[in-house]
């Protein structure tokens, strides 16, 4: 097919945007000349991040269901209708051969409009527990690319393809040394390192648990990279002053390959992208799932690894008492670390972006 035309719809978080961009790059590598259009939600981070990655994006005026303020949902049906009409217009103007949904507010209006117009659609379901909109869209999608086994309980089995979740190229390639990574974070080389990440906004329960237990953690011969997100950053910086040279506090980590290179143990939320990265980096992990994530999918994601002896899980409401002991226990248990590394490597899929791109090309033809 000459000049393949593809729309990639979705966003809202890095967990949706990074895979979308990775798929876009893979399509252009495999089929040079592919024309891409991204569709996001106005006011969300994809409207900034996608153009930074070199792609064109248009926005829909769309929001999600607000569980905290029911009054805000009164206008939601009108917003969905308006977004659906705008989606139809985008499809007529761009005339894509296929439409891909990566999750996020823009996915549903774009894919449902495409399906109504008989344009082939593909869903990239990142989590081990499918969301409501993807379950609806899955009935008419030509393919559903998944990252976990046993997804036939949500989707037609004959259209499932196990591809894994696409991650940034710098994570799959990881060509950095421990010495370089140590100098970036201001550490001495060779000391055991704990990496704490709570997603781009940080994780309140994780931050509070580390804050409360930092003195106990520092009794071990360790150094800590603590990514707090903006809300907790100043508090954490003050807290870590007593441990200069051993605790590096950052509101956001740009150098993730270097952080993974140094880490002996990772503490993380259990978003699909974080899990995909940790599998590829093969770093023993303690997951603290966000309980308010839709359908509690982060717990489901974490348990998929716990059941394979590839990770440990601490519940969000138990983090304050259980997280520090869990870190200390894992640091001390070399056998458990080795078993986790082996099992994580077995779960890692490094070419997820290309597997998905090949499937998009196939359904477009």
Key attributes of the depicted protein:
365 residues; alpha/beta; Rossmann fold; seven-stranded parallel sheet; six-stranded parallel sheet; globular
Q: What order do the SSEs take from the amino end to the carboxyl end, as H and E?
A: EHEHEHEHEHEEHHEHEHEHEHEHEHHH
Strand content: 15-25%
Averaged pLDDT, please? 92
Overall structural domain count: 2
Q: Kindly identify the CATH topology of the largest domain.
A: Rossmann fold
Helix content: 40-55%
CATH architecture of the largest domain: 3-Layer(aba) Sandwich
CATH H-tier superfamily of the largest domain: Glycogen Phosphorylase B
Largest β-sheet summary: 7 strands, parallel
Query: What is the CATH domain class of the largest domain?
Result: Alpha Beta
Please state the CA-atom Rg, rounded to the nearest Å: 21 Å
Work out the helix count.
15
The count of strands amounts to 13
**Which segments are poorly predicted (pLDDT under 50) over 5 or more consecutive residues?**
none
- Gap from first CA to last CA: 7 Å
Strand order of the main beta sheet, please? 3-2-1-4-5-6-7
